[in-house]
Amino acid sequence: MSNESSPQVQNLEHHECWAMLRTVSVGRLAVLADGRPDIFPVNYTVDGGTLVFRTAQGTKLAAATGGEAAVAVEADGVDPDTGLAWSVVVKGTAALVKSTEEVLETSRLYLFPWQAGRKDTFVRITPDSVTGRRFKVTDPMTWWTQINGSAKASQE
Amino acid sequence: MSNESSPQVQNLEHHECWAMLRTVSVGRLAVLADGRPDIFPVNYTVDGGTLVFRTAQGTKLAAATGGEAAVAVEADGVDPDTGLAWSVVVKGTAALVKSTEEVLETSRLYLFPWQAGRKDTFVRITPDSVTGRRFKVTDPMTWWTQINGSAKASQE
């Protein structure tokens, strides 16, 4: 209650992190490019303890994750029930999804491209660590409202 | 029109990038920590061609940006008029704001902490590059709705 440094920050349990990650589909991917951090929004999906996203072949992003690259993905949102914000960070290794079987399996996932255009490459992030926090947004903090629920509901 | 790779992606002009950056207050900061990328949401403000944010002293984040650190910040959103999404990436150098005068000047900015708790350190990011894109979100892409406008309007 009187924890001076951050009274209203709770760490999320591991299973809560994954539950939160499943509630949104947009995250931000941090990679190293030429020795400096770079960052991209990605449209990801959770697949058996990993994150998968699509990207266009030949992009910087594909290059950055072409080998086995250390990456971090952050996703966040606001719980509509409690009004509490959450943020989850997945750190791990990104690798291109290469085998035909694996691509086919992956493409069955409900994985929409983040933007229109050819998206030929699948990248899978295998986590080394998954951490998350829940916290009260300081009023009049501006944040985002998640439209995932309504978008899914209105898919006709 | 028939650009095969990404038909609906437009690069933003420099001034458009800054205009977009001013429309939101939450971004994601990518830093290098122990040689690996890490990523944090930050509540930033635009200040004279730089970005400024607050963070708690002694955090990983402060450590990561304690010296002159190469960082990247990404912000994104959806233009409510056009329905087009945008994403802007600022790459540059982060440095603690140290002088009393500079801190005082900075704290006059409309800069709310991202979460409740003590936020003692100001960090300024001086850009090396600012790039942005505007693109059509692929239906039924899920994205965020920005509540900045309504939050500001209902501040009573």
Task: Describe what this molecule looks like in 3D.
The structure is a homodimer of 156-residue chains. With 156 residues, chain A is of the alpha+beta class. Chain A has one domain: Pnp Oxidase, Chain A. The first copy, chain A, has four helices and eight strands. A six-stranded antiparallel barrel of chain A has the order 2-3-4-7-6-5. In chain A, strand 5 (69-78) and strand 6 form a beta hairpin. The first copy, chain A, is elongated. At the A-B interface, strand 2, strand 3, strand 5, strand 6 and strand 8 of A face strand 2, strand 3, strand 5, strand 6 and strand 8 of B.
> Biggest chain pair contact, residues each?
A-B, 56 and 56 residues
Mean pLDDT of chain A: 74
> Into which percent range does the helicity of residues of chain A fall?
10-25%
- Could you describe the largest sheet of chain A, including whether it forms a barrel? 6 strands, antiparallel, barrel
Protein name (chains A, B): Pyridoxamine 5'-phosphate oxidase family protein
Pfam families (chains A, B): Pyridox_ox_2
InterPro entries (chains A, B): Pyridox_Oxase-rel, Split_barrel_FMN-bd
List keywords for this structure.
156 residues, alpha+beta, Pnp Oxidase, Chain A, 8 strands, disordered C terminus
